[in-house]
């Protein structure tokens, strides 16, 4: 692979990494919100939605991590 294509892949990998970082921040904020829901509301729809959001964000973060590994290998 030539240098130009490796550089393009590196830029894409960096952009994915930045997106993953942003999602981690959002997930952490949502988890903090969930942790601070009063006990009386922990079985509410809002709590369930927050739990789902944390789970979905975790899945998205993991998926992005799965994408970046092959991209890094492709640069070698």
Task: Give a short overview.
The chain is mostly helical. It is built from 2 helices and no strands.
Annotate the secondary structure layout.
Blueprint: H1 3-35, H2 45-74
Description:
With 76 residues, the protein is mainly α. The chain has two helices and no strands. The chain has one domain. The longest helix is centred in the N-terminal third of the chain and has 33 residues. The radius of gyration is 17 Å and the shape is rod-shaped. The termini are close together. 3% of the residues are buried.
Strand content: under 5%
Order of helices and strands: HH
Number of helices: 2
The chain-level mean pLDDT equals 94
Report the uncertain regions.
none
Structural class: mainly alpha
Give the count of structural domains: 1
Please tell me what the overall shape is: rod-shaped
Outline the biggest β-sheet: none
Q: Kindly, what is the distance between the CA atoms of the first and last residues, rounded to a whole number of angstroms? A: 8 Å
User: How helical, in percent, are the residues?
Assistant: over 70%
Counted beta strands: 0
* Gyration radius over CA: 17 Å
What labels describe this entry?
single chain; 76 residues; mainly alpha; 2 helices; rod-shaped
